[in-house]
């Protein structure tokens, strides 16, 4: 049996399948998993709970520095704890989704969370199995030395359909048209922000998932991991 060694960075916009394939890849390779987007969502939830304007950078920073954020790294059940309470479901709500790009654009918040993310990565690398990290600036900022960087893309229509299906499956009402508009809005905000904008790292492999199922994407990722020499024999005790 084999397992991952080192870091796999998976970046891309919303709806490309990052979360699903990142978790499955990590699980299949005995690796840890980190959803950095969930960290920004958790801070956004804290900002909203504090009745702070997401565009007020000073107050957003104050809230971000005051919260206790604990991220689970088990791909089979990654938790998100905010001040000791599991908020994994709540951070996926429409209100958080609408405000997260503004909070994520605050430079001090990104600096704070990037340090947190790097600490999680270092802790994972101290153990066998490596880590799969997903987000929007992993290959460019968080883990620029990752052994494999992949930038996932898909058409806006495909991403809207996937997001709508996910929302409906998880009990959040929505339609494809409004979801498409939200996807495009977040693309513009994330790509246009001054600090750590969404972009493909120069040495990242671009993978278009528009016509691919989850299994096909996982198959492609396994091939890339193997080609990069990032597999090691898994020790069975």
From TrEMBL:
Region (Disordered): 164-183
Top-rank taxon: Bacteria
Pfam families (alphabetical): Cytidylate_kin
EC numbers for this chain: 2.7.4.25
UniProt keywords, alphabetically: ATP-binding, Cytoplasm, Kinase, Nucleotide-binding, Transferase
Residues annotated as domain Cytidylate kinase: 8-226
Matches recorded under SUPFAM superfamilies: P-loop containing nucleoside triphosphate hydrolases
Keyword Cell wall biogenesis/degradation: no
UniProt subcellular location: Cytoplasm
Primary localization: cytoplasm
Binding site for ATP: 12-20
Single GO MF descriptor: kinase activity
Enzyme class at the top of the EC tree: transferase
Catalytic activity: dCMP + ATP = dCDP + ADP; CMP + ATP = CDP + ADP
Homology family: Belongs to the cytidylate kinase family. Type 1 subfamily.
Record's protein name: Cytidylate kinase
Lineage per the UniProt record: Bacteria, Bacillati, Actinomycetota, Actinomycetes, Pseudonocardiales
């Amino acid at each position: 049996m084999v397992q991952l060694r080192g870091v796999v960075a998976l970046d891309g916009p919303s709806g490309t399948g990052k979360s699903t394939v990142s978790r499955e890849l990590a699980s299949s390779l005995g690796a840890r998993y980190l959803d950095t987007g969930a960290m920004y969502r958790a801070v956004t939830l804290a900002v909203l709970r504090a009745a702070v304007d997401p565009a007020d950078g000073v107050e957003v920073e104050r809230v971000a520095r005051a919260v206790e954020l604990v991220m689970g790294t088990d791909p089979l059940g990654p938790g998100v704890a905010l001040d000791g309470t599991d908020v994994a479901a709540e951070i996926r709500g429409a209100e958080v989704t609408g405000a997260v790009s503004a909070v994520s654009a605050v430079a001090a918040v990104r600096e704070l969370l990037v340090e947190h993310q790097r600490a999680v990565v270092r802790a994972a690398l101290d153990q066998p199995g490596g880590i799969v990290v997903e987000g929007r600036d992993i290959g460019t900022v968080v883990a620029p030395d990752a052994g494999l960087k992949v930038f996932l893309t898909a058409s806006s229509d495909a991403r809207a359909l996937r997001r709508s299906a996910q929302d409906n499956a998880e009990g959040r009402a929505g339609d494809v048209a409004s979801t498409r508009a939200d996807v495009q809005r977040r693309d513009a905000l994330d790509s246009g922000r001054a600090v750590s904008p969404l972009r493909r790292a120069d040495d990242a492999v671009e993978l278009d998932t528009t016509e691919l199922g989850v299994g096909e994407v996982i198959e492609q990722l396994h091939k890339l991991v193997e080609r990069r020499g990032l597999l090691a024999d898994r020790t069975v005790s």
